[in-house]
Design goal:
binds guanosine-5'-monophosphate, single chain, 8 helices, Rossmann fold, 2 domains, 5-stranded parallel β-sheet, 9 strands
Length: 208
């Protein structure tokens, strides 16, 4: 059985990764979603174990010490990390998994999983990105300013990714990601091992 494919959806703060991922979750139920651990407090409507595993700083540090996280990053004063076992288990069961994480974490995953597929979600323009960050309205001015400067730096990391998807419209962005998933499943490398095995079997049968 082929291993599943690890997809990483990342991109600058405010680009809409969370919204796109929530829509993908609805549209592609066979794709497995990695639920991150975080030390930030739940926002209204967020559920523990569904949106995040909400942890205290102590609990989070324990996860780091126990090597339970595939990657982790500090982002605007809080920690975020990807539970390792769930990712490994899902891939070994032949299922695809998607991580929705910020860029520092994505780069760390790239070092460990060079075979992963890295998708950079882009805003239609930098101006649009600024509007989205300001418009979210859930954060203080200081947090917004910080998020904005981080987001501009993050845009410069595009060259580390395999694909760029513009999030101009959620449906369109999801369709593009879905096409990437299909294309990745059609990569010849995924068939070579099995094909060689079949060819070997044919040759052995011929020699009998
Ligand atoms: P928020 O607090 O808005 O839910 O998320 C803040 C940022 O943390 C987003 O860019 C989100 O993609 C990122 N994030 C969520 N989970 C993880 C994770 O497990 N690891 C890393 N590195 N970033 C994450």
């Amino acid at each position: 059985m082929n291993r599943g494919i690890l997809f990483v959806l990342s991109g600058p703060s405010g680009v809409g990764k969370g919204t796109v991922c929530a829509e993908l979750r609805r549209k592609l139920p066979e794709l497995v979603y990695s639920v991150s651990a975080t030390t930030r407090s739940p926002r209204e409507g967020e559920q523990d174990g569904v949106n995040y595993f909400f942890k205290s700083r102590e609990q989070f540090h324990l996860m780091i010490e126990n090597d339970a996280l595939l990657e982790h990053a500090e982002y605007v004063g809080n920690y975020y990390g990807t539970p390792r076992d769930f990712v490994e288990k899902t891939l070994s069961e032949g299922k695809d998994i998607i991580l929705e994480i910020e860029v520092q974490g994505a780069l760390k995953v790239r070092e460990k999983f060079s075979e992963g597929v890295f998708i950079f979600l882009m805003p239609p323009s930098l101006n649009e990105l600024k509007q989205r960050i300001v418009g979210r309205g859930t954060e203080s001015q200081a947090t917004i300013d910080h998020r904005l400067s981080v987001a501009v730096e993050e845009m410069n990391l595009l060259h580390h990714y395999d694909y760029a998807v513009v999030n101009d419209e959620i449906d369109q962005a999801c369709n593009r990601i879905s096409s990437i998933i299909t294309a990745e499943h059609c990569k010849r490398e995924r068939f070579l091992g099995e094909l060689f095995q079949q060819l070997e079997n044919v040759e052995t049968a011929d020699n009998v």
